[in-house]
Amino acid sequence: MPKIRLQFTSTLVTFTKERESDVEIPAGGTVNTLLEALHRKYSKEDGARMFENKGGMSHVLVILVNGTDIRREDGLDTELHEGDLVVIMPVIAGG
Q1: pLDDT band at 73; cut points 50, 70, 90
Q2: Distance separating alpha carbons of residues 15 and 6, to the nearest angstrom
Q3: Which of 4, 52, 70, 87 could pair with 64 as two cysteines, CB 3.0-4.6 Å apart?
């Protein structure tokens, strides 16, 4: 099973109680596979729904794989490989 490096930023660190971790996913796993695993891991926490995929990209998260926004790749179907760095951050808006 490939191991990827996962980093959380900003307020997600408060939620996850960790800034980074190594995560194993099945071979051929995608960003969606990772989000499903995170939803299961944090399911007992308030806010775990932020990792749910309800038929499309989350509107509250920005996800980078090796520095590239997944919206520039295959979105949730972006395949993850051994050693990839996935950074998950909340969308920041204001005015």
Answers
A1: very high
A2: 14
A3: 87
Contact 35, 51 (CB under 8 A): yes
Q: Please state the φ and ψ torsions of residue 82, each to the nearest 5 degrees.
A: -45, 130
Pairing assessment for the beta strands 68-69 and 20-24 based on DSSP bridges: unpaired
pTM: 0.86
Domain locations in the chain as residue ranges: 3-90
The pLDDT tens digits for 18-65 are 999 999 999 999 999 998 888 888 777 666 666 666 666 667 789 999
Q: Does domain 3-90 have CATH number 3.30.930.10?
A: no
What single letter denotes the amino acid at residue 16? Answer: T
